[in-house]
């Protein structure tokens, strides 16, 4: 059973799980607003059942008969549903990310035949921490850059508090498109760099801040391959699905600039000044960049993924180098940069 469908990662995860085990049957808990899209994407696939529901409601918004049936048949539960927007208001983030996860946890505990609960957290539960962050660390008294981070932190605390549940916690870095095709659902995260650079026109290109911090980027196909392997291997614990050898934010910025525009940045714009400029609504709307994105160019933790790397190596799964697939990301962005479905609405 899976939440978050028909989201970008959940859709790809479904295909990966189906490829791994063609005999598997799937149930997707789909929000009413997404039911039409989910039906169109699945196109009457026989081994898939769509259940209308809402993770923020009691019993996940399911009818009692449907819930009872699922309690008897579900063996694996994948919880991906969340609000990922960096600019999400506090109330909305808490309702979906915290209350929603509480509701899912209650349902998961009611499944007698549960073999594995896979919860999608984020590496950014580390908040404003700097330096090395290990996979088992969580509450270190850190502060957070936005409500997305703080609510995912609270949600992971609640998941970790479950007793007697076979649990795998997935902590991705910044997820971008497919490393082979560049395909992505939304131009957020590092794509804000591309948006910003697009807006520079013929002007000299600045770096944003010192950029000495690691900027941890991973392609969606790595996340999917790793999750499929961890689900079937039945591995307990928390896994940083992050790049074990990340480039610095400055290096990422330069590589994107060269690939997208064929030009290198010429000078450094102080991060505080950039943050101040993006606090002005007309400026951030002109550049199509969320103000909250600036912090990720100047302040990130260094994620220790040694446990994940050791386990995934058994399945021959490794994170590709960012430089090797950046041309595919940029090529896809150029082809779809004006697609309204992929743009993020800037407040």
Estimated radius of gyration: 20 Å
Annotation, overall tally of beta strands = 13
Q: Indicate the overall shape.
A: globular
Classify the secondary structure makeup into a structural class. Answer: alpha/beta
Helix/strand order, N-terminal first: EHEHEHEHEEHEEHEEHEHEHHHEHH
Beta-strand share of residues:
5-15%
- Please identify which CATH superfamily of the domain at 2-172 we are dealing with: NAD(P)-binding Rossmann-like Domain
| Helix fraction bin | 40-55%
Query: How confident is the prediction overall: mean pLDDT?
Result: 95
Strand order of the largest sheet: 4-5-7-11
Termini gap: 34 Å
CATH class of the domain at 2-172 reads Alpha Beta
Topology:
Blueprint: E1 2-3, H1 8-20, E2 26-30, H2 35-42, E3 48-52, H3 64-73, E4 76-79, H4 90-109, E5 116-120, E6 132-133, H5 147-160, E7 167-172, E8 174-176, H6 191-198, E9 206-208, E10 217-219, H7 220-233, E11 237-241, H8 249-261, E12 267-269, H9 271-278, H10 281-287, H11 295-298, E13 302-303, H12 306-313, H13 322-336
Parallel strand pairs: 1-2, 2-3, 4-5, 5-7, 6-13, 7-11, 8-10, 9-12
Describe the structure.
By secondary structure, the protein is of the alpha/beta class. The protein has a domain of 171 residues: Rossmann fold, CATH 3.40.50.720. The protein is built from 13 helices and 13 strands. The strands form five sheets. Strands 4-5-7-11 form a four-stranded parallel beta sheet, with helices on both faces. Strands 1-2-3 form a three-stranded parallel beta sheet, with helices on one face. A two-stranded parallel ribbon has the order 6-13. Strand 4, helix 4 and strand 5 form a beta-alpha-beta unit. The protein is globular. The two termini are 34 Å apart. The model has no long low-confidence stretch (mean pLDDT 95). InterPro entries: FAR, FAR_NAD-bd, NAD(P)-bd_dom_sf. It comes from Melghirimyces profundicolus.
């Amino acid at each position: 059973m899976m939440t978050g469908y028909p989201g970008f990662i959940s859709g790809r995860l479904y295909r990966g799980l189906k490829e791994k085990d063609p005999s598997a049957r799937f149930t997707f808990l789909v929000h009413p607003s997404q039911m039409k899209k989910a039906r169109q994407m699945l196109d009457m696939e026989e081994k898939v059942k769509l259940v209308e529901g809402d993770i923020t409601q009691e019993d996940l918004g399911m009818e009692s008969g449907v819930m009872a049936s699922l309690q008897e048949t579900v063996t694996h539960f994948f919880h991906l549903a969340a609000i990922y927007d960096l600019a999400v208001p506090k109330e909305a983030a808490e309702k979906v990310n915290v209350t929603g996860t509480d509701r899912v946890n209650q349902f998961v505990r009611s499944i007698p035949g549960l073999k594995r609960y896979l919860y999608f957290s984020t590496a950014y539960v580390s908040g404003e921490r700097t330096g090395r962050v290990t996979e088992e660390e969580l509450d270190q008294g850190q502060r957070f850059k936005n409500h997305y981070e703080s609510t995912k932190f609270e949600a992971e605390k609640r998941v970790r508090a479950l007793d007697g549940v076979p649990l795998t916690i997935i902590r991705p870095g910044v997820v971008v498109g497919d490393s082979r095709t560049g395909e992505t659902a939304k131009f957020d995260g590092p794509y804000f760099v591309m948006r910003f650079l697009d807006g520079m026109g013929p002007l000299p290109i600045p770096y944003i801040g010192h950029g000495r911090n690691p900027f941890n980027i991973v392609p969606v196909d790595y996340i999917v391959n790793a999750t499929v392997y961890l689900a079937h291997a039945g591995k307990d614990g928390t896994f940083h699905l992050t790049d074990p050898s990340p480039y610095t934010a400055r290096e990422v910025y330069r590589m994107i600039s060269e690939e997208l525009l064929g030009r290198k940045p010429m000078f450094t714009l102080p991060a505080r000044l950039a943050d101040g400029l993006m606090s002005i609504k007309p400026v951030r709307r002109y550049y199509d960049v969320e103000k909250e994105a600036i912090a990720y160019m100047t302040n990130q933790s260094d994620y220790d993924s040694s446990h994940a790397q050791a386990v995934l190596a058994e399945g021959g799964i490794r994170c590709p180098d960012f430089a090797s697939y950046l041309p595919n990301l940029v090529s896809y962005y150029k082809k779809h940069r004006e697609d309204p479905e992929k743009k993020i609405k800037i407040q």
